[in-house]
From TrEMBL:
Residues 809-879 form the Fibronectin type III-like domain. Residues 1-59, 714-791 are annotated as: Disordered. Residues 42-59 have a biased composition (Polar residues). The keyword Nucleotide-binding does not apply. It comes from Linnemannia hyalina. Residues 734-756 have a biased composition (Acidic residues). It holds the Pfam family Fn3-like. This is beta-glucosidase. InterPro entries: Cellulose_Degrad_GH3, Fn3-like, GH, Glyco_hydro_3_C, Glyco_hydro_3_C_sf, Glyco_hydro_3_N, Glyco_hydro_3_N_sf, Ig-like_fold. It comes from the Eukaryota. SUPFAM superfamilies: (Trans)glycosidases (SSF51445), Beta-D-glucan exohydrolase, C-terminal domain (SSF52279). Keywords: Glycosidase, Hydrolase, Signal. One of its GO terms (molecular function) is beta-glucosidase activity. It catalyses: Hydrolysis of terminal, non-reducing beta-D-glucosyl residues with release of beta-D-glucose.
Length: 890
């Protein structure tokens, strides 16, 4: 088939889709979309496209054809290690709109401009049976030229994604999916652990690979844009989106989130196996006062900047293409209508230049819920006049588009405001290839769900599983002894429980059968690992704690008494967002009672009880830990988690997962994070970073190469080494003694105590200062004067594996300011981590660079500053092997 690139503004759709698509392409369009909303989903029985829907006249006599770049594995030349290195400069959003795109945006009518800024859910084009409704398509695409679709279609709707614009529009719609732990809505794609599990690996390679494979599989479904990753820090343990986050620490969220973005995007403007990523939800979404989803947040501005903003800044630095604002109000300001948050902070301070989209129906909520304005039209006016929003997820109403047009006609809104945003919308479409290649590459189809991808997901699970208790070394279980293992609990034999929400459906799959044998339960994994004869199973209670046996005490108790080991699999049933709101972190009483029943029945015997927790947030266990011999946190590992969990229990895998979130002891700990101030109590059940292995690691010789660090900013002149070049718009710290390391970029360090400027004014000053420096082309730099302390120092510690097992060990580097005059210092603050592989008996030195940015904080006036004084560097704080050393900032 000849390849004919279509001009900008014309949808390259075949004149007869059914005959133009080859068999692979037809199968792809009919089968690849998850379309699994109905339990009787069968991708092989999808109807073929209706060729009557093609109108040749709409293409001005042209017969454009879709173009493909055939997938070639050799194109994956950028390894994860290279992409994650500090030297890698990822491509970001196009900052200067291309001339043809600008011309196209300016040529559109008001209705077309408003339409391009509108995102609707795909169901708005379909009838109740899931078939394309021509009247609805004519209205939304033909009359309004809607710019974007979201969500998967019904089980009969996937066929329409290939030619959604057809005769109705001149610009291809962008489509997006919530591919949040793999391409979780694409049939046959491999799901990875939810983000909280990825964080537990403390291994950026797994985050990168999850992103890369997610992108490939989402692209195979014809979707070039995903709403991932989520970068909110999980500061409240009740929050139902904890499992979608990277945990409570801003540095972990920054590093792991950036790795996912690099995996998703790669060089997305050229590589059509990659997608545009979307960082969400900006900003403060997880800071809910009561832990409930979509509740108001009260967050001091300096806390916001120090704890909530860093992951988003890191994502911007990683080149994230798009961003999504948040549902909520922060300190009384609805974010979707806030000039401060979406213009001053996001655009001016942080430098985001990509496309910004709202969350679900957020503009309408300015009127219906936030009560900021007296009408829907005023809601549209506030959003467009006060913020930098480019696309509005309506998603089921035309009020935004109508009101935007009316506002321009009434003179309340400039047409150029719409043109500016539409140019970004169209530029993204061009960058992801929608104008040249609207359909996906059929060569990607056979790569979806490959064995290689399954192994990548399993390896991530292996490194995420976290052993929290191991009384008397009960783990690992011996595979050689002829012991009997009894398995029970609601999570024991359920793939849907392992996967959680956002898996096939928004609230998770309703039945295990929907996974079509793609996955392995914990029971199946144990039988795989120990043999079917050694492993028995009986049901006991469901996730709500209700008995699912006849009689008060059924066969599970008898089976427990006959076993050498009982593996109890407890946790949470699937949920997502507001549906997951709860009032208490306690596990349901029936689950807790199950533990007590079995513990009392086997008391006095040699039977050991292993508790495996399959949960998206840390549910409090009350007195339960005293009644079990081992506790294993599995998080939500995904469909393929069963066997890796069993491998950890058997010792085939030496566990290396660490908690990326504080595990609370009781109700008073729901909002406790390890980086609380020193006066706040912190006595959790398990602290941040907890986790055991089957090896013993000896830490020794913590030392610094210099006891003092200097804060003054020095310029360098006569630069000859490219490593000394100063990034435009930033200040630099240079030191002739810092081992040739590139000059550090840091912004707005202040040493004064002036509190006269408010937050908005400081952001404006920062923006002005930023652009003043950006325009400077003759910056003169000079070397740090000799004789003064260096502007960065390094720490080293030695690790030795004193056991006979190879091990992967995560080293955590925390910095504490001993005294701080402006804002109370944190008890600890994680500034770096590294996962190290050690063979049996092997020793390694691990190094950490202490830069000035690691000492900075935002004061009461929102200025970022470093305060002179004493600091403490602690390795593996809150763990038995913790070691500390002092240094001074002068």
């Amino acid at each position: 088939m000849a390849v004919t690139p279509a001009p900008i503004g014309v949808v390259p759709a075949p004149d007869n889709l059914a005959s133009s698509l080859n068999n692979d392409q037809q199968q792809q369009q009919q089968a690849i979309m998850a379309a699994q909303d109905a339990p009787d989903y069968n991708p092989q029985q999808q109807p073929t496209p209706d060729t009557q829907l093609i109108d040749q006249d709409s293409y001005n006599g042209r017969t454009p054809q879709a173009t493909y770049r055939t997938y070639d594995p050799a194109m994956e030349t950028l390894s994860s290690s290279a992409a994650l290195s500090e030297d890698y400069d990822p491509p970001g959003p196009t900052t200067q709109v291309d001339a043809d795109i600008q011309k196209l945006a300016e040529s559109l009518t008001l209705r077309e401009l408003a339409g391009q800024m509108t995102q609707i859910q795909i169901g708005m084009l379909l009838d109740k049976s899931g078939e394309l409704d021509l009247g609805k398509a004519e209205y939304w695409i033909g009359e309004w030229g809607v710019g974007s679709f979201l969500d998967t279609p019904t089980n009969h709707g996937g066929k329409y994604l290939a030619y959604s614009a057809k005769r109705f529009a001149k610009i291809m719609q962008s489509k997006r999916l919530d591919s949040v732990h793999g391409a979780n809505y694409v049939d046959g794609a491999i799901m990875f652990p939810q983000q909280i599990g990825l964080a537990a690996t403390f291994n950026t390679t797994h985050a990168y690979e999850a992103g890369r494979i997610t992108a490939k599989d989402t692209r195979a479904a014809g979707i070039p844009w995903v709403f991932a990753p989520i970068l909110d820090v999980a500061v409240h343990k009740l929050w139902p989106r904890v499992y979608e986050s990277f945990g409570e620490d801003p540095h972990v969220a920054s590093v792991m989130g950036s790795a996912v973005i690099k995996g998703l995007q790669g060089n997305y403007k050229k590589d059509r196996t990659r997608v545009a990523a979307c960082m969400k939800h900006f900003i403060g979404y997880s800071g809910s006062r009561n832990g409930q989803d979509k509740s108001s947040a009260w967050i001091p501005d300096n806390y916001l900047m120090d704890y909530f903003v860093p992951p988003f800044q890191a994502a911007i630095d990683a080149g994230v293409a798009t961003a999504m604002e948040t549902y909520i109000d922060v300190n009384g300001q609805p974010v979707v209508g806030s000039h401060f948050y979406l213009t001053e902070l996001l655009r001016n301070r942080l430098g985001f230049e990509g496309m910004l989209v709202t969350d679900w129906a957020e503009v309408d909520r300015l009127f219906t819920e936030h009560r900021s304005v007296p009408s829907l039209k005023d809601a549209t006016a506030q959003c467009l006049r006060q913020t930098s929003v480019d696309m509005v997820m309506v998603p089921e109403s035309e009020s935004f588009a109508k009101d935007a047009v009316t506002l321009v006609q009434e003179g309340r809104l400039d047409r150029e405001r719409l043109v500016e945003s539409v140019a970004k919308v169209l530029q993204l479409k061009k960058d992801v290839g929608l104008f040249e290649q609207p359909l996906s590459d059929p060569a990607l189809l056979p790569l979806v769900g490959s064995q290689q991808d399954i192994e990548a997901a399993k390896e991530a699970v292996r490194e995420s599983v976290t052993v929290l208790k191991n009384e008397e070394g009960v783990l690992p279980l011996s595979k050689k002894a002829n012991g009997k293992i009894f398995v029970t609990g609601p999570a024991a034999n359920s793939i849907r429980a392992l996967s959680g929400g956002w898996s096939i459906k928004w609230q998770g799959a309703e039945k295990d059968e929907w996974y079509q044998n793609r996955g392995e339960t914990i029971l199946e994994g144990l039988r795989h690992e120990f043999g079917s004869r050694s492993v028995s199973y009986a049901p006991s209670v469901d996730f709500d704690g209700n008995s699912i046996e006849e009689g008060e005490h059924g066969s599970y108790l008898q089976a427990a008494t006959e076993a050498d080991t009982v593996v109890l699999c407890l946790g949470e049933k699937p949920y997502a967002e507001i549906v997951g709101n709860i009032d208490t972190l306690d596990l349901p009483g029936g689950q807790l009672q199950l533990i007590l029943n079995i513990s009392q029945r086997v008391r006095g015997s040699n039977t050991k009880i292993i508790l495996v927790l399959v949960e998206g947030r840390p549910r409090t266990l009350q007195w339960l830990p005293d009644h079990v011999d081992a506790i294993v946190m599995a998080y939500l590992p995904g469909p393929w988690g069963g066997h890796p969990i069993a491998e950890v229990l058997s010792g085939t895998v030496n566990p290396s997962g660490r908690l990326p979130i504080t595990y609370p002891r009781g109700p008073s700990d729901m909002g406790a994070n390890y980086y609380r101030s020193g006066i706040d109590p912190y006595k959790p059940l398990f602290p941040f970073g907890a986790g055991l292995s089957y090896s013993t690691i000896e830490y020794s010789g913590l030392r610094l190469n210099h006891p003092e660090l200097h804060t003054t900013t020095y310029e360098k002149k006569d630069v000859g080494d490219p490593g000394d070049l100063l990034e435009e718009g930033k200040e630099a710290v240079g030191d002739e003694n810092d081992d040739g390391e590139e000059a550090e970029a840091i912004e707005e360090i202040q040493m004064d105590d002036d509190d006269s400027s408010n937050a908005a004014q400081v952001l404006k000053e920062s923006h002005h200062h930023h652009h003043q420096k950006r325009d400077t082309t003759t910056t003169r730099l000079r070397k740090h004067p000799s004789g003064l302390p260096p502007a960065s120092i390094s720490a080293t510690i030695r690790l030795k594996n004193t056991s006979t097992r190879p091990v992967k060990e995560t080293v955590f580097w925390y910095i504490t300011q001993d005294y701080r005059s402006d804002i109370m210092p944190e008890a600890y603050m994680l500034r770096g981590f590294e996962k190290v592989s050690l063979d049996a008996g092997e020793s390694k030195d691990v190094k950490f660079r202490i830069r000035r940015s690691a000492l900075a904080y935002h004061g009461r006036n929102l200025r970022k500053r470093v305060e002179k004084g004493s600091f403490t560097l602690t390795v593996n704080a809150m763990r038995p092997e913790a070691q500390s050393i002092k240094f001074n900032v002068v």
